[in-house]
Amino acid sequence: MEDMVTKYTDLSVKYSDLFTKNNDQSAKYNDLSAKYNTLLTKTNGFAGGSWYDHTGAAAEFVCLPRDPDLTTKFTSRAAYIYGSEYDNNEFGHDSGNDLPCSVCRSTVESSVLMIPGKSSCYDGWSMQYHGDLVAGSYLHKAATQYICLDEHPESLVAGQDDHNGKLFYPVRTSCGSLACPPYHNDRYLTCVVCTK
Predict the structure, then answer these.
(1) CA-based nearest residue to 167, from 188, 140, 130, 133
(2) What's the pLDDT score for residue 131?
(3) Per-residue pLDDT for 21 more than 60?
(4) How many CB atoms lie within 10 A of CB 134?
(5) Which of 32, 46, 140, 148 has the maximum number of C-beta atoms within 10 A of its C-beta?
(6) Helix (H, G, I), strand (E, B), or coil: what is residue 67?
(7) Strand, coil or helix: what is 98?
(8) pLDDT digits (tens, 9 = 90+) for 53-110
């Protein structure tokens, strides 16, 4: 009976485990596995989101599964989802390469925090990974969110055509309303993902 309850619980929360950010999991963009001691990989997939230049675009990046469940029940207008691409060569991959992602769950910590502008965690927090702060371009219409791209970016082998979609760019500082110092104008920001 306990085994059946466990299976039911696993199935009933599968969707929310994969696609929502609870306080014990996070999407790790461009890394195919959660390779740290306190993380379990829940799924590997394709980073995606709205078209970079659509006015009514959704803001967030998502990690799409490799085994989607699709439906044909709708026939009216729709929102669209696209794959994510590097839009320059500065991440160590060709422009147009698609990004993989994985959704990870912490086995011991219950809080996940992404800190922009830091490469290490504050005392009492455990680092899961660090890298570069990325977002959509300020020149594009669509809203995006800031995410932390792993310092060792990967790309999908089959996704090398430049079709745009949801695009990633490194984030630079702009002094004025941003306090300078401690920040410096036109410098790229790092980031770190910490758990506690």
Answers:
(1) 140
(2) 92
(3) no
(4) 27
(5) 148
(6) coil
(7) strand
(8) 888 777 888 887 787 777 777 777 666 778 888 776 676 666 667 778 877 776 776 7
* DSSP H helices in the chain: 2-12, 14-19
Hey, what are 194's tokens?
């910490």
- Structural domains in the chain plus CATH codes: 2-195 (2.170.240)
Helix runs in 13-136, H state only: 14-19
Query: Beta strand pairing status for 62-65 and 126-135?
Result: unpaired
Amino acid at 48: G
Q: Are 171 and 146 in contact (CB under 8 A)?
A: yes
Q: Report how far residue 136's alpha carbon sits from residue 51's, in angstroms, rounded to the nearest whole number.
A: 10
CA distances from 144 to 21, 48, 56, 141, 153 (A): 16, 11, 11, 10, 19
| Residue 147 amino acid letter | I
Chain centre to alpha carbon of residue 129:
13
**Is 31 in contact with 154 (CB distance < 8 Å)?**
yes
